[in-house]
């Protein structure tokens, strides 16, 4: 029996109706292989659509998992064998691997250093094609060409076999994949001759730590274009003979075939986080009559449309590659968790229905790593041209608040997977409100934002901010030296203080400011007064002697043996040199406290020194390579610092250093991608490049009651931006080049622009923003009126 994969009627015209601004083929500038030497689990998933649930990708080492639950795993450019093609790739979520083979049957993937020890296959990257929405590779050990693509919730496979009487497709379901952690249960069965269904339940490391009653379930329902000659089952114990089903850890099936030369076998696999029935419904809704080629065409048309919303022009092809690859990762990093019928996975394996307000675009429930640092990249990009995803983020968190009473610092299928324990969700939602993204219950949103900043009673560990009581009591978080490791828990935080006390103080001060501005906008005066006072917590830990943020004890004294470059002691994933500039809510206050000249000299010298090590990453391939550096662009706490010169009267230094970071830190090779020591959390570093290359940024993350946009040094001679409000913004940079990085003058819609900033609502009216660039600083432009600081 052979199934008919008929063409059907596909609304490709809609997908292919590319705007005038995106008429150029932008897909050719996306190189998914950039930065794959040290990349997180989501990072290399080319066979996906923007924010899709189905993220198909080859895996070189995914079954190894990772000890700490976050390290780079999945696909590494330094490894030369593939063990399978995996469907699910999210923060703490991974599973369902398929692999075509020939010859003697093996049901274990085998070792990286001994490919022949299992079913993995060697491959040559010259025979690999990776594009947005599509992946293709020749598996050398089997002479099989494997191709994968996807719709939102359906994965497509096409395997071209040689002539062989022992051809197989291995459906490896019950094993660890990436960040998924331990598999606790799995099941797979043939429904009939050409349909397969199953599920896998996992217990990821971060769920175990932060939400121990939680679990992550993944479901699938697949359709096969050719009936197998026979089916065999296997489990962790090995092969189980000719059976049509398998259950438990290590469960899987083998589809056996006799294939002719160049014979193609296709599969399409509906996915869901809620049920097999919904996985089947997702398949029927999105791909019932879709062929592989149609799915690929539709996926790539979607990428063309979404990437093309930001159309850049200029002679430097390498910069375009950096730009569109960064944007690709920004639009790939998170993934929907809701089904076509609106079902989403609730805590503990339950199913819910997403509540919507009815205003604006219908939101999706999405999985997400922590938003730590996201206000300096991804949320600004969302607010510019992709507000529907900002709205989905807000609606997801509000649904979680309804269900569980608290926001999630990080989220995996409604389970708390706290990335850093500080929870900036309230700040991100307050900024969404200030930028006009309001397709949700605003009163409920404010209630939740306020609770995130001030409430501590019965707060679950996984929601983060376990030291809110201490912060509200002292105005800062007291340092607890003994909490470095306390009763087996590293870097403990509780209601009395924290080991990461200083970074928490700075972060809570910033998020309190955001909540205060939202309170002010909603007329809640008492809340505003309380929150704005807390936003000055940074002053409590700034040592007036050394002008550095120094950990402080509960008795009000600064700690002894203080070393400004020492990472972790008082500072999460950083040190005092990096975090001293972490006052985004009030740069003018920090500048005054430090002294303008000292501020500028110190900051400029920091970049002069860090330029010698490519701004923190150096040549070490490690996420924390720059954690003890003077500046670390490879991680979140530093990402706003280069823009602070706009506030200190020297905007030309912001122009200089942001340009150089874009030039040196970001690369176009598999090894040097986002630095060498990068931690690309779901598209954040890519987003930073995109908005910085446009010359638009806000240190305050749009948290002001009337947000602003600071101006930098646009890289491209012209950028045409489809704004989220359907208007168009054109940014021209006359004479821009690698040497001409300095703004000489600027106009907005023909009127001289004398400030190095403007209000965001003015920018969002669209029109034309024109910069004239030169090779030497214009030290008078943009210096008269600095951006507003404390509002």
Structure, described:
A 9-stranded antiparallel beta sheet has the order 6-7-8-9-18-13-12-11-16. A 7-stranded antiparallel beta sheet has the order 1-3-4-10-17-14-15, with no helix packed on it. The protein has a 6-stranded mixed beta sheet with strand order 19-34-35-39-36-37, covered by helices on one side. The radius of gyration is 26 Å and the shape is globular. It is α+β, with helices and mostly antiparallel strands and 791 residues long. The protein is 25% helix and 23% strand. β34 (718-722) and β35 (728-734) form a beta hairpin. α5 crosses α18 (684-694), α8 (425-434) runs parallel beside α11 and α15 (587-594) packs across α16 (596-610).
Structural class: alpha+beta
Number of strands: 39
Indicate the percent of residues in helices.
25-40%
Main sheet makeup: 9 strands, antiparallel
* Major β-sheet strand ordering: 6-7-8-9-18-13-12-11-16
Shape: globular
- How far from one another are the termini? 70 Å
Number of helices: 19
Mean pLDDT comes to 94
Please tell me how large the radius of gyration is: 26 Å
Q: Which residues form runs of ≥5 with pLDDT under 50?
A: 1-22
Organism: Hymenobacter defluvii
Pfam family, one: Glyco_hydro_92N
Keywords: Calcium, Glycosidase, Hydrolase, Signal
GO molecular function: hydrolase activity, acting on glycosyl bonds
